[in-house]
Design a protein that fits this description.
By secondary structure, the protein is α+β, with helices and mostly antiparallel strands. Helices cover 27% and strands 25% of the residues. The radius of gyration is 21 Å and the shape is globular.
Length: 379
């Protein structure tokens, strides 16, 4: 499991050492750096996945497009270099990358693991020097290469969905664009034991349908390949008493939640999922359920880092902790503030076994209380 992310001169961070847990929740105001925590991991993933033997960190690809070196280097303190580091199973790895400000990729100038630094290493395999051939290093490379990143801008309802080869559609994709393909090809695969709804057979399609029913009672799924066309149709219904409908005729929220559910139920133990704003188009009860669902996924062995603006997602996680199904030390909460704000840029409240949080920094899911105090002052 990744236990820490280290950044130097990356975007708004001059230096960052962020603890990571089985479930890590990132919150805070807009433009405070939450997405900038996810992006370095996505860059490693993107380069490993799309350019197996690359000696450069690719800033633009299918998963993420960050522009030029000037766009990713800290504009206050940086010049042309960044460092991305992770601690994985007590072993640290750091990539030192450099480039001219107008370039679209960065040279991997050195890779350091433990006390050993490999300067200008060639060749690199999945961004690691071939001299590093330990099982731990291979495990890290495999998890980063295969991580799932889901953005807040997920695809909406479609008449048909392209059916991609399972080598291409091995994960749901940043916009959930491959979600239906992943579901189709893996419809008969089993899901992790800790995520199985016992009333349904342990097959991915049936478990996906069962979880979607928890978010949307009565939900049903039907995935069919179109004859002689590399496409599939997705049928949805919201009641057992109705026929399947085209996605455009059901609530928008179903197609926003579906890629997340498919991604979680397609994951293996120790896989890494990065999810932005899972609460999009969900009513408050559904947002709380999403928090519980992600906490259950983390307790089942999937490492999840989620960015959210929803206090309901947070409260769902707190309820799951209180249930005893995930330990408080398996959950990390990080609240981000703009760099020019007085005090620490990141505050990390602690959660206890009862789901209580030890401190509520100003701005940390406290808008409801502020609004109520405002109304209480009215005549």
């Amino acid at each position: 499991m990744l236990s820490r992310l280290d950044l130097s001169y990356f975007k708004c961070f001059e230096a960052l050492h962020l603890p990571l847990k089985n479930l890590t929740l990132l919150s805070g105001s807009n433009a405070s750096g939450k997405s900038s925590v996810l992006q370095p991991l996505v860059l490693l993933h993107q380069t490993m996945r799309e350019h197996e033997w690359s000696t450069r960190l690719m800033l633009n690809g299918e998963s993420i497009k960050l522009g030029t070196v000037a766009d990713v280097v800290d504009k206050v303190h940086g010049r042309r270099d960044i460092e991305i580091g992770v601690i994985d199973d007590s072993q640290d790895y750091t990539w030192h990358c450099s480039g001219d400000r107008e370039e679209l990729s960065m040279l991997v100038y050195s890779v350091k693991t433990g006390r050993v630094a490999y300067d200008q290493p060639k060749p690199l395999h999945y961004l690691l020097p071939t001299a590093i051939s330990t099982s731990l290093a291979k495990s890290l490379a495999n998890r980063l290469k295969n991580l799932t990143y889901i953005t807040a801008e997920r695809v909406g309802p479609r008449e048909v969905y392209a059916l991609e080869d399972s080598q291409i559609a091995s994960v749901v994709g940043p916009a959930g664009e491959y979600a239906v393909s992943v579901l189709y090809w893996g419809r008969d695969e089993e899901v992790l034991a800790g995520l199985v709804i016992q009333s349904e057979v342990n097959k991915r399609l049936r478990q996906t349908e069962a979880w979607m029913r928890r978010f949307f009672p009565g939900c049903g799924l039907d995935v069919q390949q179109i004859s002689k066309v590399n496409s599939v149709t997705l049928g949805l219904r919201t009641s057992d008493a109705t026929d399947f409908h085209r996605p455009i005729h059901v609530g928008f929220g179903l197609t926003q939640v579906l890629p997340i559910v498919i991604a979680v139920l397609s994951a293996a133990k120790d896989d890494i999922l990065l999810i932005e704003n899972p609460e999009v188009h969900l009513h408050p009860a559904g947002q709380a359920l999403m928090g519980q669902f992600l906490a259950q996924a983390a307790s089942a062995g999937i490492q999840i880092i989620v960015e959210t603006h929803s206090d309901h997602v947070l409260n769902g996680i707190r309820r799951f902790v209180k249930s005893g199904k995930i330990r408080p030390e398996q959950v990390a909460l990080h609240f981000f503030r703009p760099r020019d704000t007085d005090g620490a840029q990141i505050v990390s409240p602690q959660i206890d076994a009862s789901g209580n949080i030890d401190a509520w920094p100003d701005g940390f899911f406290d808008q409801f209380d502020k609004d109520m105090n405002h109304f209480a002052g009215w005549d």
